[in-house]
Amino acid sequence: MSGYRKPTYGAAVNMARLVFLLMREQRPLPLDEILERLEISPRTARRYLRALNTGLEAELGSPRIQLIREQGREYWTLPADDKLPASHYQLASLWIGSLLMPGLDGTVVREGLQDVMEKLKEGLGPGERPFLRRWNRKFYHTGWGVKRYDRHDEALDRLLRALLAERKVNLTYRKAEGPPTRQLVHPYTLVFHRDALYLYAFNEEIREHRLYAVDRIQKVELAPDRFEYPEEYDPRQVFAKSFGVFLGPDEAAYEVEIEFDASLYDYVANRHWPAGLKTTPVRDGKFRMTAVVTSLFEIGHWLLSLGRDARAIRPQELVAWMRGEGEVR
Questions:
Q1: What letter would DSSP give residue 135?
Q2: How many Cα atoms are found within 13 Å in the side-chain-facing hemisphere of 118?
Q3: Number of C-beta neighbours around residue 277 at 10 A
Q4: Which of 1-10, 11-20, 230-239 is most confident?
């Protein structure tokens, strides 16, 4: 006599649903979530588990559904080699991500992304392929005002190689004023900000960190030497007190406070802003925002773009600049 109740047709359907659920989620699922989604009892779930593992272990040599217990909870999962390599939902997510970088069309970055997407498509089963019909027309990015980097494809290619291999590079860089200069740098991070690319790197000659606009890099030459990527370096800390990418000395931190008209609340409060920005609730038709930055340049120009509905409260340097006096750095 077998050790478990013989499954019925209804049970067989539920067991198929269980396996499909674990394959689709591609993560350990808590048992209570499985019970809720399949609308079965713990006793029934364990009967399915025994039936599946007993039957499939005889065919495949190992249990198909594995149990994990962590912090008093039980999780069920499939072995790594049983999980789907991709799904139509993941491919759509990847496609949306690529749309957010329209300026990279015609570059090695976009080509690499397309190669990955093609490989993931090959891993889709017949049941998921129909979801990809017309998918490139279901998401659209206008690309309004974005910088184009197709002319900088060779430079981007070499920068990516240097970043991944942690190799020094010689940059021929064109500043806003003056002739191009050649600089030996250690590339740390490729920064994507407002549809523009920047390279944050350590300049060997002046022994300082610098930010380079990629569209101003005229030439990239890979140097033979590697550099030691600093373990303590974290770009999130570097740009923590920047309202974008402009950086000033840490000792020059400004405490900024701005007052806005209530009509701007959704625009300001429902977006991600850097520099630890905080907003207050609306009171008497106004609300305020505070931030700590090391450069007033970007936040000052942002305020100007908002017109009369935004007013600088502090620091005094920003207040004066908004009145047309002095300048901000």
A1: G
A2: 6
A3: 19
A4: 230-239
Identify which of 311, 204, 292 has the alpha carbon closest to the alpha carbon of residue 250.
Answer: 292
**CATH code, domain with 269:** 3.30.70
Number of structural domains found in the chain: 4
Q: Can you give the CATH number for the domain in which 201 is found?
A: 2.30.30
Those residues whose C-beta lies under 8 Å from the C-beta of residue 75, and which sit 6 or more positions away, are 28, 29, 30, 31, 67, 68, 69
What predicted TM-score, i.e. pTM, was given to this entire model? 0.66
Q: Which residues pair with 289 in a beta bridge?
A: 258, 279
**At 219, phi and psi to the nearest 5?**
-155, 145
- Band of pLDDT at residue 326, cut at 50, 70 and 90: low
Phi and psi (nearest 5°) for 187? -75, 125
Query: Left if phi > 0, otherwise alpha if psi is -120 to 50, otherwise beta: which for 234?
Result: beta
Q: How far is CA 136 from the centre of its chain?
A: 21
Has residue 133 been placed in a domain? yes
- Decide if 1 is inside a domain: no
Range of the domain at 115: 88-137
Give residue-wise pLDDT tens across range 70-120: 888 899 887 765 444 456 666 777 777 776 677 777 788 778 877 877 777
- Are 319 and 312 within 8 A, CB to CB? yes
Report helix, strand or coil for 112.
helix
User: By the 8 A CB rule, do 157 and 126 touch?
Assistant: no
CA 192 to chain CA centroid, Å, is: 10
Q: How many CB atoms are closer than 10 A to CB 198? A: 19
Write the pLDDT tens digit of every residue in 23-63: 777 678 899 999 998 889 999 988 888 887 776 654 444 55
At residue 3, does pLDDT exceed 70? no
DSSP states of 17-83: HHHHHHHHH-SPEEHHHHHHHHT--HHHHHHHHHHHHHHHHHHHSS-SSEEEEETTEEEEE--GGGS
